[in-house]
Design goal:
- The protein is of the alpha/beta class and 482 residues long.
- The strands form 3 sheets. It has an 8-stranded mixed β-sheet. The chain has a 4-stranded antiparallel β-sheet with strand order 11-12-14-13, covered by helices on one side.
- 39% of the residues lie in helices and 13% in strands.
């Protein structure tokens, strides 16, 4: 076998290297490029040829052996199986039936950076995965009792189709909570329950953006927002951030007539600063004069470790220009897939009509259990406990990074920090090396659009126990020294 038969795994792809190699080898076998009985190089030889770790090759071989694509002969080596049913229908290579036509929406996603969600197995709790809450501290028994209680008392009304806006008691509970905790001004009638913040962004993008419409995005910024608006055909206008957040004056110069602006004002993702009051007022003034909307993503601002959480931008809006996006993925758990939009009154009818033709409504059982969780006071207590826990884990991260060749920046708000690298460093290469050492970090350059940012690493700490933070820092140090 020649290595040229196998595509080299790409470390910049979201799929793990071993799985890329597994898929590449499987495709080569099914396509006939690797014939039955072909002897494969040793794992050490193949790892050297492909410039990957030997563990990557071992894991790929193990999967192929388990599925019958490969077989081993003692003292002889590893071979392509002689008993592959490759001539049966359904086992033809995918290349034989390529899709020849793509919709405009599909084309807009080709080549887009993929979000790192799902299919991570045991990697979910390792250092330093960002965006993951402390699942080890979630009150599973309490939540289970609330779900079971709702399930036991299901009546016909809850089994029928629900209102598109969402379960009324849940919307009332959310309105009461954000009014007090975030100084948002709204009623339950302005709230629409959606499938997490990504569902909210998808709905906003499809309803408010026509192909070619300019949209301001923070640079660097959240990939999920970039994907949602690019998928709607928007012309992305990158707007840089500094210590005071989004540079509104730059946005005005680059595109004063943008259709909308998306930003994370309370805790900028990924860098961590807060949008200053003057910038907030400037942004709202621009939105009024440009007849534009501002999408405020308030993804993790409950976790402020010094002083009270900052008030939301929406509370300053006097003219119905701000669309507020909230999610329970960071405060509870990601697979709940419940978030919410708080909409200006003028947008409600259109959003509800469109939502009725897409997901209709979110699952009623989970909405009912969440309404109970909030109304009974459990949500507020859980957030307070997590705020204290994340504060401890934040300090553990700062302590663990003290001896590393990085410059740490961990904001007073949120669930992640930054490890700045020396200027000129390749943060993608560093992230790849860290992965080989069992550490999950994300290069900051991945979030940038128009400029060459200072290299750095995104370091999540909320979902990582202090012992793993410490061990992860040691593994990261080994990666950096290599």
């Amino acid at each position: 076998m020649t290595v040229s038969v196998v595509q080299v795994p790409d470390p910049q792809q979201p799929t793990a290297l071993y799985r890329q190699l597994y898929l590449n080898l499987r495709t080569a076998i099914l396509a006939g490029r690797l014939k039955r009985g072909t002897r494969l190089p040793s794992t050490r030889e193949l790892a050297t040829s492909l410039n990957v770790s030997r563990n990557t090759v071992l894991n790929a071989f193990e999967q192929l052996l388990a599925e019958g694509y490969l077989e081993t002969t003692p003292a002889s080596g590893t071979f392509v199986s002689l008993h592959l049913p490759v001539d049966k229908p359904g086992l033809r290579p995918l290349a034989d039936s390529r899709l020849t036509h793509w919709s405009k929406l599909a084309r807009s996603f080709r080549g887009a950076p993929a979000l790192h969600v799902g299919d991570r197995g045991s990697e979910r709790s390792r250092a330093f995965r960002a965006g993951l809450p402390a699942l080890d501290a979630f009150p599973f028994k309490l939540w289970g009792r609330l779900v079971a209680r709702r399930a036991r008392h299901l009546d016909r009304a809850l089994l029928d189709y629900q209102t598109t806006a969402g379960y009324r008691p849940l919307r009332e509970a959310i309105a009461a909570y954000v009014t007090v905790s975030r100084q948002v001004r709204c009623t339950a009638d302005q709230i629409v329950i959606v499938s997490g913040s990504q569902g909210a962004l998808d709905l906003v993008a499809r309803l408010l953006v026509d192909p070619g419409d300019p949209v301001w995005l923070e640079d660097p910024g959240y990939l999920g927002a970039r994907g949602a608006f690019a998928g709607a055909g928007a012309r992305i206008v990158p707007v840089p951030v500094d210590a005071e957040g989004l540079r509104v004056e730059v946005g005005r110069r680059r595109c004063i007539d943008a259709r909308l602006a998306y930003l994370t004002p309370s805790h900028q993702f990924p860098l961590g600063m807060t949008l200053s009051l003057q910038r907030r007022l400037d942004l709202l003034d621009w939105a009024r004069s440009a007849n534009a909307y501002v999408v405020e993503d308030d993804y993790d601002s409950e976790y402020r470790f010094h002083g009270r959480p900052l008030a939301a931008l929406q509370g300053l809006d006097e003219t119905g220009r701000v669309i507020y996006v909230g999610t329970f993925s960071k405060t509870l758990f990601p697979s709940l897939r419940l978030g919410y939009l708080i909409l200006p009154h003028g947008l409600l009818d259109t959003f509800l009509a469109a939502k009725a033709y897409t997901e209709v409504h979110a699952p009623a059982l989970e909405q009912g259990a969440l309404a109970d969780f909030i109304a009974d006071g459990h949500f507020g207590r859980h957030v307070r406990r997590m705020r204290a826990l994340y504060g401890e884990r934040r300090e553990a991260l700062l302590s663990a990074l003290a001896g590393l060749p990085v410059e740490p920046f961990v904001a007073d708000t949120g669930m992640h920090g930054i490890g700045w690298l020396q200027r000129g460093a390749d943060d993608v290469a560093v992230a790849r090396a860290a992965a080989e050492h069992g550490v999950d970090v994300t290069p900051l350059s991945r979030f940038s659009l128009a400029r060459n940012p200072r290299p750095g690493l995104l370091l999540g700490y909320a979902g990582v126990a202090p012992t793993e933070i410490k061990a992860g820092a040691r593994r990261l140090a080994a990666a950096l020294s290599g």
